[in-house]
Amino acid sequence: MIARHAFRAASPLQHGVRRYATDGSPTGRMNPWLKYGGGILGIAFVAFGIARAMVEEPEDMDKAKAEFDAYMAKVRSRGKGAANDGKPANKVFKGGDQGWIDLKLESVEELSPNTKKFRFALPDKDDVSGLQVASALLTKYKGPEMEKPVIRPYTPTSDEDSRGHIDFVIKRYPNGPMSEHFHSMEPPQRLDFKGPIPKYRWEPNKHDHICLIAGGTGITPMYQLCRAIFSNPNDKTKVTLVFGNVTEQDILLKREFEDLENTYPQRFRAFYMLDKPPEGWMQGTGYINQELLKQVLPEPKVENIKIFVCGPPGMYKAISGAKKSPQDQGDLGGLLKELGYSKDQVYKF
After folding, report:
1. Three-class SS string for 127-149?
2. What CA–CA distance (Å, rounded) separates 200 from 165?
């Protein structure tokens, strides 16, 4: 059985989780990707605050907000892909027959007892990774007693336009040779990377509503999609996240997702399932199950939706059926098939 425990719905489920309001304007906390922008972005927010204080009529406020969004879009477009001298930034990873590139580990930040954030320096401070949403990189490591190198794909958590570095959030798994190697690394050790590996090419408003079903470190490509959507003021896509873990401490990037919920409550919702919940836990317990999915996902008949799945092999089998290969999505199976979704509505990372 997929659901080993009864699902205890959180209070948000009692307020019509299938119905989001159409207004996508942010409320509450500032967009986390703009909040720390600094420089021009900081000045822009100050200017917007002054303009807001001077506005007296509500309709003028709406106009000022629209003008501000348009201005911010221009600021971002000027910053993307251009180095400090105005020339296009060099993309480190170009794919094809480029081969492996070794990068220096710059810093390590402990996020939990079994999860760390690793920052690797790109060759030049103005370089960008060259990745697109959604895509990943291969990593390679060969220990002194290994006959063959270990190769594993990982999705960066840093923005695709970040200069001079690339970040990964890696959870350590017992007997996982690559994750254990990551956790043994210290600056300035180096690691081989190759890519990018294209996954699902995202375009603004490609779908009206996307649903992200993730387990464990399968959250990283989902976070990559969320970053792209909510950092673009022209992208109005609604997002529902269903995230399963063992303990609350295992929920990667929870603060970032909480920021999104507070900033875009009408466009982003997150639902969590824990196998070993703490006392007082108000969301689901056990594995991701049919009851939860039926409550929080849009109905199969809704047009222009997409469901993304990423997690351990057992989760794929239970939720969507496994992929046949990296290039072959395989047949749709599991709970999503039972709920009536079609193969075209589901993508397996």
Report:
1. CECCCCCCEEEEEEECCCCCCCC
2. 23
